[in-house]
Amino acid sequence: MATVREIRNQIGSVQNIKKITETMEKISTAKVKKNTKRLASSREYYHSLIGLMDHLIQYFKDDGLATDHPLIKSHDSIANSLILVITSNRGLCGGYNNNVLQLTKKLYSTLKEEEKAIKLFTIGKKGISYFQFNKIPTDQTFTDIDDHVDFDRMASIADQLSDLYSTEKVDEVYLVYTKYLSGGQQRPAVEKILPFDVETNETEELSEDYRPIYLFEPAGHEVLDRILPVALRIKVFNTILQTNLSEQIARKIAMKQASDSAGDMIKDLSLLYNRARQNKITKELIEIMGAAKALHS
Questions:
Q1: Nearest Cα to 175, choosing from 104, 115, 78, 70?
Q2: pTM of the model
Q3: For the chain, which end, N or C, has fewer CB atoms within 10 Å of the first or last residue's CB respectively?
Q4: How far apart are CA 182 and CA 36, in angstroms?
């Protein structure tokens, strides 16, 4: 059985750990509020732009302008795939990274079974470490993307993806990330972002009775040339905002659970400490009484 001093030292260690986890929980709570506001402020622009893009694609679909665009037109053969994986640079966020990486591994295996060449772009140190450990080659890695990432940084990555697709160096682009649904629900998701899908849109299909009349200046194909790259940039940027928010929510929950577990452990150790202390006092009393009895006799 552990001594009173050892138990007291254990209690002190657990109390220090609890202070750290409580502090990290408070930091994550503050970041959740900040990232929630940032995501909400960009959501209206994101949905408006994606809605406009969907309407234009549907508008030009019959004319062939949409289906012939380099970012919409499917390649003749689908032999090269690119996967962009978004993980975090830091741990202590529960199963946040593991869920995304397991989904990525499943997608990677599926594409391999289809005998496709795969390029792997990885955001976050946790993803990089995972692929290095599993000896899965990565083509590009990004470790400078965190809570303070700006639009221009993500736009440069989106432009790189569009260049690779439009020059037919890759035939499809997948995005694996944690999708933010609500404060209490986030889940890993796979989304095919290139080519743009002309059939499945985030807005409702335009009916024959309602077909808006657009006046284009410059010409329609030039409008698409400008809208589609911007739509991809805002898509990638919105995704990183969702993953940052989901990461902080996961870390907040993990630190709350760690603090609760530390509190339970302190209670158990305190009970064990009191028992050990009581046994020690009882033993000393017995020794004193035995010595007194021996002297009296």
A1: 104
A2: 0.86
A3: C
A4: 10
Multiple choice CATH, 24-253, 3.50.50.60, 3.40.30.10, 3.40.1380.10, 3.90.550.10: 3.40.1380.10
**E-strand spans in the chain?**
80-86, 117-123, 140-142, 172-182, 185-194
SS (H, E, C) 217-283: CCCHHHHHHHHHHHHHHHHHHHHHHHHHHHHHHHHHHHHHHHHHHHHHHHHHHHHHHHHHHHHHHHH
Half-sphere exposure of 140 (CA within 13 A, CB side): 11
Question: Tokens 């790259």 — which residue?
Answer: 229
Four-point Cα dihedral 3, 7, 9, 15, nearest 10 = 180
> Which two structure tokens, joined as six digits, stand for 230?
């911007």
Instruction: Read off the pLDDT of residues 113-132 as tens digits, 9 standing for 90 and up.
Output: 999 999 999 999 999 999 99
